[in-house]
Write a structure and sequence with these properties.
Strand content: 25-35%
Oligomer: single chain
Distance between the termini: 41 Å
CATH class of the largest domain: Alpha Beta
Strand order of the largest sheet: 3-2-1-4-5
Mean pLDDT: 96
Bound molecules: adenosine monophosphate, glycine
Largest sheet: 5 strands, parallel
Radius of gyration: 21 Å
CATH superfamily of the largest domain: ATP-grasp fold, B domain
Shape: globular
Helix content: 25-40%
CATH topology of the largest domain: D-amino Acid Aminotransferase, Chain A, domain 1
Number of strands: 25
CATH architecture of the largest domain: 2-Layer Sandwich
């Protein structure tokens, strides 16, 4: 089987490793890929520079399955999955219209309301005046820009001052360009990431995870792409998982079918466990990063066959199985992250890591050595029979790896719900 994975980060590195462990021993390509993905995983390079050249390349090279790691191409042009369908290439990733579940916060909110899926109340606003009217002096409030904002489009505002500042930047100065804004009820509670593999009306819930979004220990400081993750079937009780399935996952999949959105691929539910039960904060049309790096080592079986069958509309849960135990992923981020980004710092200690997996996110090879390439740099992932075991192993192994200015949270996996 020939597979082409779209993406370049730590999530794609983990996906490619897991796909490569499938019994059919697939030949894997990655676009745009990274030095580590090509060199360490042996993934072939793709001679393409945009969606159209990628689709043409896949067709000319008889690719059997396209796997969307990241979301961007799903909503580029007429959409990666739509173009794959036109070329007869099975795609594990949703079509353009379904990918609006992630691309438009207002679309997602209307979807949740239409299908009565528990979520915070929200009002869509076109300008500053509408936003102020919707806030109506009630704080804390959550403001979400409804467009691409490189992860900076959400502000949890404790008071009028922070809200006014965000509104000024986003709705007056138009820092992210034109677009609407959602004023959303502020929810409280621990967050959990739930992943499902969805193929039309069928779904399979995978191992749940928790990510650590803030840069600082104790969940302090600005939001990042994720500084680490913990994953286990034991993260949530069977009763809670059943409630999440009945109230959120099943109605979402039924809603996608009812709306004719023909969803295929991983679907990520960002949930908050409130006093009134689990509520959805966001959908993402892809796996989480860094949750993927923690979850993939807990999946066994034929992931390549599972994704191919799912992309063809035949979800077959028997092709994969879930390991018990815990997985902890520690991220090493570059100096200055998330405010700024620094590259070209020499990475040491990679060869000392034992009994843990290393996934590269922001590295490159220079003069035969691995150096940083900005942002989140590496994920070190360890498995343990219990949480403590996985936590200790992951941190001990991550501590062996270093580069100037490296940042790592020492409480990943320790700070629990
Ligand atoms: P998002 O970009 O939608 O994932 O939001 C980023 C983060 O903002 C989430 O992980 C939450 O921590 C926080 N957040 C988003 N929506 C809400 C909400 N309605 N209430 C409280 N916190 C929220
Ligand atoms: N870990 C958060 C995300 O992938 O969006």
């Amino acid at each position: 089987m020939k597979i082409c994975v779209v993406g370049k980060g730590g999530r794609e590195h983990a996906l490619i490793r897991a796909l490569g462990e499938s019994p059919c021993d697939p030949e894997i390509f990655c676009f745009p890929g990274s030095d580590a993905i090509h060199e360490l995983e042996g993934a072939g390079k793709v001679d393409a520079h945009d969606l159209e050249s990628l689709v043409t390349w896949m067709s000319e090279h008889d690719i059997d399955l396209c796997v969307a790691g990241e979301e961007s191409y799903l909503v580029t042009g007429s959409g990666l999955a739509n173009r794959c369908a036109e070329m007869g290439i099975p795609c594990w990733g949703p079509p353009f219209a379904a990918a609006q579940m992630e691309a438009s916060k207002e679309f997602a909110k209307e979807f949740m309301q239409r299908h009565e899926i528990p979520t915070g109340d929200a009002t869509g606003c076109a300008d500053l005046e509408e936003a102020q009217a919707a806030i109506a002096g009630k704080y804390p409030t959550v403001l979400k820009f409804d467009g691409l904002a490189a992860g900076k489009g959400v502000a949890v505002c404790p008071d009028q001052e922070t809200a006014d500042q965000f509104l000024q930047e986003v709705m007056v100065e138009r820092r992210f360009g034109e677009g609407r804004l959602l004023v959303e009820e502020c929810l409280e509670g621990p967050e959990i990431s739930i992943f499902a593999a969805v193929s039309g009306p069928e779904y399979l819930i995978l191992t749940p995870a928790r990510d650590y979004k803030r840069i600082g220990e104790g969940d302090e400081g600005p939001n990042t792409g994720g500084m680490g993750a913990v994953a286990s079937r034991q993260l949530a009780s069977p009763e809670l998982m059943k409630q999440i399935e009945d109230e959120i996952v099943a109605p979402t999949v039924a809603g996608l079918e009812k709306d004719g959105l023909n969803y295929k691929g991983f679907l990520y539910f960002g949930l908050m466990l409130t006093a009134d039960g689990p509520k959805i904060i966001e959908y993402n049309c892809r796996f989480g990063d860094p949750e993927c790096q923690a979850v993939m080592p807990l999946i066994s079986g034929d992931l390549a066959g599972f994704c191919l069958e799912g992309a063809k509309g035949n979800l077959n849960p028997e092709l994969i199985s879930f390991n018990e135990g815990w997985s902890v992923c520690c991220i090493l981020a570059s100096a200055g992250y998330p405010e700024s980004s620094r590259a070209d710092d020499l990475i040491s200690g990679l060869d000392l890591v034992q009994d843990a997996r290393i996934y590269h996110a922001g590295t490159k090879k220079a003069s035969g050595q691995w150096v940083t390439n900005g942002g989140r740099v590496l994920a070190i992932v360890a498995h343990g029979d219990d949480r403590e075991d996985a936590v200790e192993k992951a941190h001990a192994q991550a501590a062996q790896v270093d580069f100037p200015g490296s940042q790592r949270r020492a409480d990943i996996g320790r700070l629990h719900f």
